[in-house]
Design goal:
Elements: H1 11-25, H2 36-41, H3 52-58, E1 70-77, E2 82-84, E3 90-92, E4 100-106, H4 111-127, E5 133-139, H5 146-154, E6 163-164, H6 169-176, E7 185-189, E8 194-200, H7 208-217
Parallel strand pairs: 4-5, 5-6
Antiparallel strand pairs: 1-8, 2-3, 4-7, 7-8
Length: 220
């Protein structure tokens, strides 16, 4: 069971573990908020000027268990970001318009994802009931759905919808744009489909810090 004061995911320990895993796998992993490349990556242009006020509001809340988030400067649209929905049909982030979305990329071979996914599941259960917020956790394993489904069962996932992209297109696009250096990778999208913050590496998403961030992002 995931608890409010979960201690299995301290920020420093998670960030360190994620970096070590990235080095061992030969991946480029940058999971610290002070990363210059991360800040530059979030500085792309886009028609999301009205989301600037939300970013300003959220910055003080990017602390504690979610301190690794990097604010978008300026916010930008990811509305055409595509993947498959629970029914197997193609969809984009534009289909979530009007809803705040925590977009997460994960895979069965991602070791930190095994601990993070139950956190995301609990966040969805607690914060997504009103239909104004959703954790969209997108699996990027290639092949069929067998491994991802087994992973979800093994980790006790019950509240997260099953979003999927077995082409690696989602990851490659975000990697090209400087938003994903490894897995997990998470982006906070406002109700207008604009990126307002991003994080590389795992976090305690069921923590009070994360919940406060989501409440503010929803405009409550």
């Amino acid at each position: 069971m995931v608890t409010e004061n979960r201690k299995a995911l301290p920020v420093l320990t998670l960030a360190t573990a994620a970096v070590v895993l990235g080095v061992l796998s030969g991946a480029v992993a940058v999971y610290m908020k002070s990363s210059g490349s991360g800040k530059d990556a979030l500085a792309a242009s886009g028609d999301c000027a009205k989301s600037d006020a939300l970013v300003t509001k959220l910055k003080p809340l990017m602390k504690g268990q979610v301190a690794a988030l990097v604010a978008a400067n300026p916010p930008r649209s990811l509305g055409d970001f595509s993947f498959k929905g629970p029914d197997g049909k193609a969809m984009t982030l534009a289909d979530f318009k009007g809803k705040t979305v925590l977009l997460n990329l994960w895979a069965t071979w991602c070791i930190p994802c095994r601990t993070e996914m139950p956190e995301l599941d609990a966040l969805q259960k607690d914060m997504g009931a009103d239909g104004k917020f959703e954790v969209a956790a997108i699996n990027i394993d290639t092949g069929n759905d067998d491994k991802p489904n087994a992973f979800r069962n093994d980790t006790g996932i019950t509240s997260l919808a099953f979003y999927r992209d077995n082409t690696l297109g989602t990851f490659n696009r975000l990697k090209k744009e400087g938003l994903a250096f490894g897995l997990p990778a998470t982006m906070l999208i406002d109700k207008d489909g604009c990126l307002v913050a991003a994080m590389n590496g795992p976090a305690a998403w069921h923590s009070e810090d994360a919940k406060a961030l989501v409440v503010a992002a929803k405009g409550e």
